[in-house]
Amino acid sequence: MKISSIQQVKIVNRLRLLVLFGFLMFIQMEVFSQGKALFEGRCNSCHQIDKNGTGPMLKGAKKRWADANEKDLIVEWVINNEALRASKKSKRAIEIYNEYNKSPMTVFSDLTPKQVNEILDYVDAEAAKGAAGSDKTKDKGGVNPVEESKEGESGSGYMWYVLAVLFVVIILSVGGVRRQLQVASSGNEELNKLTYWEEIKQLLWKYRKTTAVSVLVMVLSVVVYGFNMLYSINVMEGYQPSQPIAFPHDKHAGLNGIDCKYCHNSVAKSKSAGLPTVNVCMNCHKQINGKTEQQQAEISKIYAAAGWNPNIKPAGGYTGKTQPIIWNKVHVLPDHVYFNHSQHVAVGGIDCKQCHGDMTKQNQTARVTPVSEINKLHDEDDKIIQLTKPTLTMGWCIECHGKKKVEIGNGKNGYYDQIHSRLMKNKALYKEYLKGDQKITASELGGWECAKCHY
Amino acid sequence: MKKSFIQLVTLTTMLIAMVACKQDPTKPGLEYMPDMYRSPAIEAYVDYGEVRGRTDNNKKRLLTALTPPLHTIPFYGKMDSASLAVNLPYQRLANSAMSLSHGLFEGIERSSEINHYDASAADNNPIPSSAAVVAKGKELYTAMCQHCHGEQGDGQGPMVKSGAYNGVPNYKDADRASKSDGQWFYSIYYGKGMMGAHRSLLSKEEIWSVIHYLRTIAPRVEKVEATSPAAPAAPAPKM
Predict the structure, then answer these.
(1) Three-state secondary-structure class, residue B189
(2) Whole-prediction pTM
(3) Does the structure's ipTM exceed the value 0.90?
(4) Which of A94, A138, A289, A448 has the fewest CB atoms within 10 Å, counting from its CB?
(5) Domain A5-133 has what CATH class?
């Protein structure tokens, strides 16, 4: 295929244009990337792009100032808002100041007007990108897959009982009709003399082998069911209650890497690990209000409890009208057992995972994580002690007390230092303790004494 | 017909037995003699005033005696300046605007003219620094702050990296690092900006330990005051 000289010129021109365009894009991106760094470093701790926070949202900030006929003053405002307010040449400056309860913005006297414009351009570009992106995400329908499968599992149990009764009624009535028909067709009066029960007895005797087997099955199932029920008394292993506010541990502790101790913050200080007070939730949820409708519904329950009204202008506020959250208790420690969290976590240095399993993968809190799953965690963390008895039973406590090595005499704990110095004086006893496993375990320091854990 | 009758009966029985064995995870197991589970000793998170729908006002009243009297401080027998400072109530109040923004309603400054945040710049860390204190501060920082503020204090914690939260400042910024220990304490104790009050999570002693640790990663810098022509306006409360 031949290309004429005019076409060649056209192609070259187009290529030149393309290169020029690419170069311009490159420059623009360079500008945006600096705007990004500046925005994240200097502005982002008070300003969000599309949400009012400590300061107003920056999306459309340029337009808002332009609408107030003070297009150029926004740069002055960012660089030194105090000076602009003092100069009284801007109405908008006083407006914003009053809207945000007269809490002034930090003065950024080291920013140049060019940098300020870059920041604002970056923000507008980002906002446009966000608007385009949100249309796409809407199509997917962001439903939280976790919460759905809860219904339909319970509540339908009574249906089976109704069905069973219906079966019996149908069987009996069909049997009655059959008998009437038989009497009418054969004219056998003797058959009519037999009562219903006598006829059934005859029937059962006739098929006595089948009867014997089915009676055996019935008796056995009643016995098995009875024993199962007796075994389940005061055993709550499968208990996994729903909570008034859905709290996915996998999102909080897993995805977002929040330490267990942040929310359960009394774990190293007291007997109880503690549930977070709602102000701890609000430390993050003041900003995070949920992406999907379902998340928003759950988080609005936190707001109701904390007395936070997101509709107060400009960026939401606390009303002071709080209400308690009544959680469903998951773990119940029997009255005759003493268990202290701080003793195990702060003194023993045991990881939460050792007893509760890997909560970063659990959505709804179950009472018990099977010991087999906890043992698997040993692959990732060799501090995890592998046990055989079912979790949260006494045998399991005892087993762990017999295996856990206690670090004595390292100067970290006065109580253990005392024991260490006594053992150093009594070498025979020390040797006896070390016999077999070459370590001092909790059991040797009284971890197997009844009164240590029982009142 | 008769055979199927017997089969039907057997089937029904088995069905009932199977249904009866199914466990509902949202319901606790059967309780027999539940007194072992309902401790007469006071345990946390049990509403003893209300047991199974019965309200016991007597118990509710008794519970109040178990909370320590207001405005009392613990006395451990030693009264050096450090332990006194951490046991006495914090002398700075929350600024008046913090009711709305941080939900602090008790013990706040009523006047909007007085700014306790600025005043707290004069406060010094009452706890002497030592390797043990810094180690303790680091441990607390890892549990309490790191998920937002990042391991290096650069505001790039896992919360920020996952995209759930944004706008966490870098401690090494001249803006933050130029603040005094006292102002850092104030910000942790009452909150600042989007950050909420952390006084319910950390004791005063623990906050000061965290600050000792923070100073090892973000030493205090003198604020480079750029030439600002206008004199600052009348001091106004910051959030």
Answers:
(1) helix
(2) 0.71
(3) no
(4) A138
(5) mainly alpha
